[in-house]
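Researcher: We plan to redesign the surface later, but first we want a full-length starting point. Tokens attached.
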């Protein structure tokens, strides 16, 4: 089946890099059905916004009978509407499948009711995508695993451990060479809810790189959204280099408090790995004043930091093109993504 990829949120460079990786890795990756491979085409899409604010989306190529991939990180209301219109347009143009690639899943932090009469935003997003006609989802590092259960269609979930494990291994090796074996690397969750994510990373490092890395837990008392009253470090970080592993960094309020707590507990340095670099509101100002040594994020969202900003030199961005390309390969070849990623990431 022919495949075509459209970038709905104008990140053409990202879409092109996915296709380049796909065309390269399909020749390198061993899968059960190599004869099923077909090149994936980059399509172009028209997006219009009328004077009253209404949006419209249509495609410049035929999609009839094709497997259509729609790439978008819809972190605004307009981007969500554009994506839903694109799904509907593809279905009405007789696409055989419409697979939505969401490097950033909107409203993922609303995975449960936080108020007695509040919504479950992630569930609403899932229903919208399904109702519009999406036949499958590829997404990256969901805030909560249960979001996958909000869908009645297949969900391919790429975990952050496949993106960042190599960087952690490199940092650990460099630390041993430059500082000696006593300069231990320790992983940390940003809060108790992130312990599972850290454990997965520890397991990945052990299996892939034969590294035994310990972790600590940060327990936060949060009095309101984006504000942490106090932190407690559970574990020893004295004279250690700490790497915080989290799913996202937004206003950098709670993370900043966690970093201060780690430094106060004796950590020599603190890096942070965050799958999604939202960086909204006062984030950049707080980052500029923080004791953070380095921030490593993915390109699930466009980097919201000017090139000349002083914090820019502390930020490293890792592309998801490789992992998304493998996800498309697994779908197009009816093979196991878990096996592909374990062998190649």
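Model: Full-length starting sequence:
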């Amino acid at each position: 089946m022919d495949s075509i990829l459209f970038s709905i949120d104008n990140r053409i460079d990202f879409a092109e890099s996915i296709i380049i990786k796909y065309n390269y890795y399909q020749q390198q990756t061993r899968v059960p059905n190599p004869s099923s491979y077909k090149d994936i085409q980059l399509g172009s899409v028209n997006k219009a916004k009328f004077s009253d604010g209404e949006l419209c989306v249509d495609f410049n190529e035929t999609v009839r009978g094709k497997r259509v991939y729609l790439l978008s990180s819809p972190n605004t209301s307009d981007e969500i509407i554009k994506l839903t219109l694109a799904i509907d347009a593809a279905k009405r143009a007789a696409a055989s499948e419409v697979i939505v690639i969401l490097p950033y899943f909107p409203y993922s932090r609303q995975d449960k009711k936080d108020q007695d009469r509040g919504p479950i935003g992630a569930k609403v997003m899932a229903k919208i995508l399904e109702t519009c006609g999406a036949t499958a989802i590829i997404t990256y590092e969901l805030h909560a695993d249960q979001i996958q259960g909000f869908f009645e269609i297949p969900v391919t979930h790429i975990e952050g451990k496949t993106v960042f494990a190599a960087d952690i291994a490199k940092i650990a090796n460099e630390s041993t060479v430059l500082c000696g074996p006593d300069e231990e690397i320790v992983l940390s969750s940003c809060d108790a809810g992130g312990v599972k994510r850290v454990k997965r990373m520890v397991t990945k490092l052990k299996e892939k790189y034969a590294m035994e890395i310990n972790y600590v837990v940060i327990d936060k008392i949060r009095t309101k959204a984006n504000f942490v009253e106090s932190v407690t470090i559970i574990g020893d970080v004295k004279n250690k280099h700490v790497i915080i592993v989290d799913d996202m960094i937004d206003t950098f309020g709670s993370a900043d408090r966690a970093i201060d707590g780690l430094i106060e507990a004796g950590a020599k340095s603190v890096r942070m790995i965050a799958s999604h670099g939202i960086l909204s509101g006062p984030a950049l100002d707080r980052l500029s004043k923080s004791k953070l040594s380095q921030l490593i994020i993915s390109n699930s969202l466009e980097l919201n930091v000017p090139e000349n900003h002083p914090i820019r030199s502390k930020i490293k961005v890792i592309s998801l093109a490789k992992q998304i390309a493998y996800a498309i390969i697994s779908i197009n070849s009816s093979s196991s993504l878990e096996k592909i990623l374990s062998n190649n990431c």
